[in-house]
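Field log, afternoon session.

UNIT: design team B
ACTIVITY: writing a sequence onto a fixed backbone
BACKBONE:
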């Protein structure tokens, strides 16, 4: 029988559980926490880490509910969540306002007026990572409502663009990425996260954008290039079966397997 639950009904139990266990029934805070974990699934954050990265959510936060410096990707992710009615349609203006907060976060005079200590910490983090180390910015928006066509087009239009930020006496161009996840997007990620590992030798990672290179010879070799996030997702689904046909695996932890 097909699943007739709405996307929000599918994610609500996890939000309710977090609200009860960690946020004294505050479902807005629970959604903020849960959506952060879903979006950054490949990082496998513990709940305590999520609380640390989202503690900025308070009066005077400029609409930023969390941030995470991704040193591997050399970007600082700025996170905003909106726990709204599932039948609400997100307006483009809300996303534009989130993008617009970047300029304020780099303005030391504006930041000096903030009463939120976490905002001051974020300003220092941005100055260090973006101005000094050359990191880019990644805006991440999550909502329990619906992203309409215009909202998604707005997000797409920003990809690959730059944003002007103030670094001391200079104004610099900083690479900017923008991602937005609505209730349906988050429900899909949650379903993938809940899939049990499959005990099977054969695994299937269907990727239309994967690149293949075949080397013919006595031992035919196939090289496949695909996004690392897809490998992480496959490992969550297949577990150790993903590497079962790798010859050194049965050797255990030795000089070959480190």
């Amino acid at each position: 029988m097909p699943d007739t639950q709405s996307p929000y009904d599918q994610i609500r139990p996890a939000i309710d559980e977090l609200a009860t266990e960690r946020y004294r029934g505050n479902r807005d805070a629970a959604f903020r926490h849960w959506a952060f974990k879903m979006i950054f699934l490949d990082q496998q954050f513990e709940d305590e880490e999520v609380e640390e990265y989202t503690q900025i959510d308070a009066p005077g936060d400029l609409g930023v509910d969390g941030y995470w410096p991704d040193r591997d990707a050399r970007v600082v992710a700025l996170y905003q969540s909106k726990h709204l009615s599932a039948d609400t349609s997100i307006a483009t203006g809300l996303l534009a306002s989130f993008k617009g907060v970047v300029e304020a976060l780099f303005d030391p005079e504006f930041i000096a007026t903030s009463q939120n200590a976490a905002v001051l910490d974020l300003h220092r983090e941005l100055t260090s990572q973006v101005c000094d180390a050359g990191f880019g910015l990644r805006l991440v928006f999550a909502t329990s409502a619906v992203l309409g066509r215009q909202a998604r087009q707005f997000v797409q239009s920003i990809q690959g663009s730059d944003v002007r930020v103030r670094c001391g006496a200079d104004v610099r161009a900083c690479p900017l990425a923008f991602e937005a996840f609505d209730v349906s997007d988050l429900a899909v990620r949650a379903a993938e996260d809940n899939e049990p590992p499959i005990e099977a030798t054969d695994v299937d990672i269907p990727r239309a954008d994967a690149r293949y290179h075949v080397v013919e010879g006595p031992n035919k070799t196939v090289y496949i290039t695909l996004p690392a996030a897809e490998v992480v997702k496959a490992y969550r689904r297949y577990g150790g079966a993903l590497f079962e046909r790798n010859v050194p695996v049965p050797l255990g932890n030795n000089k070959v397997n480190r």
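LOG NOTE: Residues 198-251 form one domain.
NEXT ACTIVITY: expression trials, pending approval
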